[in-house]
From TrEMBL:
Catalytic activity line of the entry: N-terminal glycyl-[protein] + tetradecanoyl-CoA = N-tetradecanoylglycyl-[protein] + CoA + H(+)
EC class name: transferase
GO molecular function, one term: glycylpeptide N-tetradecanoyltransferase activity
An example Gene Ontology biological process: protein localization to membrane
Similarity comment: Belongs to the NMT family.
Domain Glycylpeptide N-tetradecanoyltransferase C-terminal positions: 262-441
Protein known as: Glycylpeptide N-tetradecanoyltransferase
Superkingdom of this protein's organism: Eukaryota
Signal peptide: 1-25
Function as written in the Swiss-Prot or TrEMBL entry: Adds a myristoyl group to the N-terminal glycine residue of certain cellular proteins.
GO annotations of cellular component type: cytosol
Alphabetical UniProt keywords: Acyltransferase, Signal, Transferase
Domain annotation Glycylpeptide N-tetradecanoyltransferase N-terminal: ranges: 89-248
Amino acid sequence: MVPNFMICYLVSCFDCSALVQLTMADNGSVNDDTTNQNSEIIKTESAPIDELSREIQETLSVSQRHKFWETQPVGQFKDLRDTSLPEGPIEPPTPLSEVKQEPYNLPNLYEWVTCDMNSEETCLEVYNLLSNNYVEDDENMFRFNYSKEFLQWALHPPGYFKTWHIGVRVKSSKKLVAFITGIPAKIRVQNEIITMAEVNFLCVHKKLRSKRLAPVMIKEVTRRVHLENIWQAAYTAGVVLPTPITSCQYWHRSLNPKKLIDVGFSRLGPRMTMSRTMKLYKLPDSPLTPGFRKMELRDVPSVTRLLKTYLLEFVVAPDFDEMDVEHWIVPKEGVVDSFVVESQETHEVTDFCSFYSLPSSILGHPNHSNLKAAYSYYNVATKTPLIQLMNDALIVAKQMDFDVFNALDVMHNEGFLKELKFGPGDGKLHYYLYNYRIKSMLRSSELGLVLL
Ligand SMILES: *[C@@H]1O[C@H](CO)[C@@H](O)[C@H](O)[C@H]1NC(C)=O
Ligand SMILES: *[C@@H]1O[C@H](CO)[C@@H](O)[C@H](O)[C@H]1NC(C)=O
Ligand SMILES: *[C@@H]1O[C@H](CO)[C@@H](O)[C@H](O)[C@H]1NC(C)=O
């Protein structure tokens, strides 16, 4: 019934495959072109983790690569079954005075800059770099087209560090050719709340991909994170590295099936016609739940309470306060949308749902240039059934002209995906913690964290 989605569309995977490259190339003797090996690895996705581990060890023909990871403060495959290892930081913080004070060296023609994303001019340069050079699907049919407003939102949470928005320019022309960012986030692992960095938007201009900029950029952002006395990070990748805390799958719900099929995002199911497919995905014109309305600033306290309680159910989840909710959840046009259900009797907010807007450019198609995608963010249902709440989310996303609604199988999402006609994507998204060991891998439903 559900068409097969052809693309392996892994959010934030480029940044992290570059993370592999970074760390690999940390040692000059190691080849940094690991992408192909890793896409082989991904084919083993259904294998249990120790089988994966063995296959990975076998795939790593370059022994230094293996050695390299053994030197990093990340969970190791060989330790996966060793439950005697303590949970928590793998390495203690080093004294701040021992953190390297000067930036890492770049190749001679390039220089570091700190990007002031509040400057329209700089933000436009970053936008242009990303919209032309950032993540594409495997078949180069789509490329993320994060909007300027989205970037400003994503990079300016409460307590952000401007110095973590790092660019690389060509010295002579000042052209921006690479970018990487970190933002601070309080993330709870079991009962410990840890301030971490979330690293994202690593992008190197296509023409400079062979110049080994990515590794030094990741080292530089790590150094700047350490300078703020922060020693842990959370990140995602489309490839298997030592060692995921969990592996998730993307699911896609067609809102505009004709366009998705026309542009090659999905294909017509067997024995399906276009008109039957359009009927299958048809949604009501307006939300069905009484009291379902757009979230407003005045809802921040109740949404924070709902979210805090809900996120305690998960092993790894952000620790949001009202300031975080005001930043991350209150609707921002064209960036993030949130809806609450307000009880008709008590006027209490009992449920909410949210999604962010991350369009992609459609490459080389004669009739369509922009794919409008909504991504499920945080959803909490206490009175309204989750399926009904998310059906209303689909309805409003359709009203807003999104073509597709994407969701990971994290939190309680498995409870609505099949029922609401989401189809599984063919890629995985792996979550990692840097310098923090957890005792055993989580199920994706035990994860309460969505990274942009
Ligand atoms: C890099 O690798 C070489 C060869 O394996 C080794 O001798 C050297 O110590 C390594 N350097 C660092 C900084 O790890
Ligand atoms: C683009 O639109 C034209 C006119 O509607 C149609 O004939 C053509 O098949 C479309 N091209 C693609 C690749 O969908
Ligand atoms: C990318 O998004 C911008 C708005 O942020 C839009 O103006 C532009 O047309 C989009 N690019 C493509 C190729 O769709």
